[in-house]
Amino acid sequence: MRVGILTGGGDCPGLNAVIRAVVRKGIQDGHSFVGLANGWAGAMDGTHAVALDHASTSGILHRGGTILGTSRTNPFKSDGGADRVKATLEEQGIEALIPIGGEDTLGVAKRLWEEHRVPVVGVPKTIDNDLGSTDFTFGFQTAVQIATDAIDRLHTTAESHNRVMVVEVMGRHAGWIAVYSGMAGGADAVLVPERPFDVEEVCDSLRRRHESGRTFSIVVVAEGAVRAGADGPSAGEGAVDQFGHARLGGIGVDLEHEIEERTGFESRVTILGHVQRGGTPTAYDRVLATRFGVAAIDAVSDGSFGTMVALQATAIRQVGLEEALREPKLLDPALYETAEVFFG
Ligand code: F6P
Q1: Distance between CA 309 and CA 321 in Å, rounded?
Q2: pTM of the prediction?
């Protein structure tokens, strides 16, 4: 078969490892490949499509980003967008499509399958780790490692200056990065979207900690953390994207000021932002991405369309896109409770 590949949504360490794995296994099975540029944008306009073969996918296993480019384009927001995708697939002779993406990119894939019978097999990607039906998405572990390294570094400067360090990490709907990096980095408070927080309670716990002799604290906050009683996270500047998401970021700045004003403890904020998505994937993410890529082309060979590959316990399985996208995967409350043991 001639198989199309695209990467959509925010980039993520391990995308290139998936592309390499799909192509390398697929060539062995007799398939050929076309890469569509810039996510669904390239699938709609057909420009910059590139042949993918052994040579063009060599040397990319360890490279961050995506050799195909990405975008947050939603074909269902453009007139005739789905028909344009179908026209591109026909022009390129593409008989099956592997979209690599998160809830938005795979949501488009699901509709293309259900409403237009476009044969798709999805690969789950997001540093946020909030996709259903898969225990982990590749990229998450790398983001956690980057955030943990940053917290370790902030620890020593916090201690030297007797400061409260607020560290803002990504996590739009779910606090996975915040809790994992907070636990690994020994954070004294972790604020996540799943648990609305009261700033005075956070300050109380910092006061108790400082009264017991500690002179510094680390507060990790997910960008999507919500204040008790608020409708949602405080969005930053800018319009919503084509999937209706506001641009987040900046809650850490407000917290820095509020904590300093309320407690009198000198505070500083560090927003890790896109550093968490950049650079080399960890070994774990390279292996997971490779396993997903091989499983995705195997699913194409089997004709298992309308599915997504997923990690369940230690096995890679196929799950229906409908099931995978039904609910986001929010934090396991038991994990948060374990993190809480070390707060304050
Ligand atoms: O992919 C999800 C995510 O990492 C979110 O945590 C974050 O809100 C978003 O991407 C930011 O993406 P960008 O600024 O690249 O649009």
Answers
A1: 9
A2: 0.97
